[in-house]
Structures are given as C-alpha cells and as structure tokens.
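Weekly modeling sync, notes
Attendees: S.R. (lead), two postdocs, one rotation student

Agenda item 3: backlog of single-chain predictions. S.R. asked that every request posted to the team notebook include the full sequence so nobody has to chase files. The rotation student volunteered to paste the first one in as an example of the format we agreed on. Action items at the bottom.

Example entry:
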Amino acid sequence: MKKVRKAVIPAAGFGTRFLPATKAMPKEMLPVVDKPTIQYIVEEAIESGIEEIIIITGKNKRSIEDHFDRSVELEVELEKKEKTELLRLVNSISDMVDIHYIRQKEAKGLGHAIYCARTFVGDEPFAVLLGDDIVHSDDEPALKQLIDCYDEKQATVLGVQTVAKEEVDKYGIIDGYEMSDRVYTVNDLVEKPDVDKAPSNQAILGRYVISPAIFDILAETEPGVGGEIQLTDALKELSKQEDMFAYDFKGKRYDVGNKLGFLQATVEMALRRDELKVDFLAYLKTIVDQERIDVE
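Predicted structure, as returned to the notebook:
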C-alpha cells in the first residue's frame, strides 16, 4: 500500500478578482490577518502528514519562493535586536517542509498545472490543495480526513461539502450516493450544472487525493471550457477506469478567491486569535451598532 507523501499546490493564476492588489503581488501572498493565504494551505498539508510539496507557479510569483526560503539578513537583524520570538517564527517558516517549485509556462488551466507535477509525483498517489480554499478545522485537517479515506479505499478521493441547492451551479458536483458516513461513491462529475439538473448538492471544494493514473489521462485530455485543460474532465474519465470516492470533510471552508470570502476568513481567523479576539470583537460591535443606527 503506497502512502500519500506528496502534495501539489497550483499557484499560477493571475488573481484578476483582486486587482489592483495582485498586479505586482501573487494572490497567494495576500495576508489573512498576518499570514499569507498559501501558508495556511502548506500548514494544512504538513499537519496531514505530507512530506514533500511542489508549488506550481507562474510569472511574478517569486515572492512565494522567497517567503518559504531563508532570509539571512532579516534573521541577523532580529537576532541583533534580541527579538527572539520573531526570529523563531521566521525560522519556522523556512524549516516547515521540503518545497519544490515548477513554472506553468502557459496558462492552460488547472489540469495542465497538475500535469506539470508528473515527474515530481511519479507513480505515487498524491494530494492536491487549491490555494483559493482555506479550511479551518478544530479536529483533523481536511486533507488528513481525505488521506484516511484513501488509506481505507485505495482509490481517488474528492473533498466535498454540502452546498445549498440554489448554489450548485457555482461548483463541480458529484453524481453518486452515500455508501457510509460521509463517504460517497462517484459515478460521474458535472461542472456547474443547472440548478434543476444537478445530480446532487455535494460540491467539490479544493481538496483531492488522486491516483497517479490521472497523468496518462491528462496527457490525452483536450482543452475544454475556456480553452483550458480541465481537471474535472480528466477526473470524469478516471472515474470510468477506476473506483472513485468523495468524502464530506469536516471544517469551515473559506473561498478566499473572492473578496467576500477573503473578508470572512480574515474576520473569523482574527476572532480565533486570543491576543486579538476581545478588542477586535468590541470594535466590530461598534461598527455593527453604528450601521444599525444609520439604517434606522
């Protein structure tokens, strides 16, 4: 039985929904409180037992590499000023895990980005974590829940959660049935179906454990929606060749790829911080009270 040791994090997108902030800064480096969004993703992978990570980057993404690299000048300055706690924090980022990088030279879609990792992955099952989704869990990390399911089923596992029926047209939706607690068989996948035609309301939300057989399929997958190679198209084909499951993972998921989701993540992550919670909550209350007065 092969262990899930490697993870792929696609981070080559332009982040156009956050312009002008992302004109010179990768969207993955936008901070939620005081930590860039991609660090939350990397930390989830590590907490799930991942040993090696490859980040698929593109142009103007060098700051991602710099963030996880050593910063000798900063370390010297912090040591000189005896800022021990900050020095420990900075060192912990560069010591997290072995991170590799490869560029997606052309914007050919998520499927193509995953295909860029084929040499790194080899013939092992691997995890994929999309950087637009941060998941907070008080118990096991979302990816660890999927890996546990993979260990039992020895087949591709898609991370899903239940969404409102009127919102199914925003997501990839699975066609299957619940075979045991939180575990679904996957017979097919439908990308952004019409609300009245959706086979379920189980939406695929940015976490996967995938069989290496996906690479042979991606090599033959033709461009789909938007002229891009879609991961969903390749997964549909894989579901015809191998067993495939979905796991309804526990945790609060934030879509930090859009402005409202980003703001929600920032507020709620701040409220989970002991040193911020009381003062920040008091501030939010004054804002809400003032808005209520203005509305009345």
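Discussion: group reviewed the output briefly. The longest helix spans residues 274-295.
Action items: rotation student to repeat for the remaining queue; S.R. to check formatting next week.
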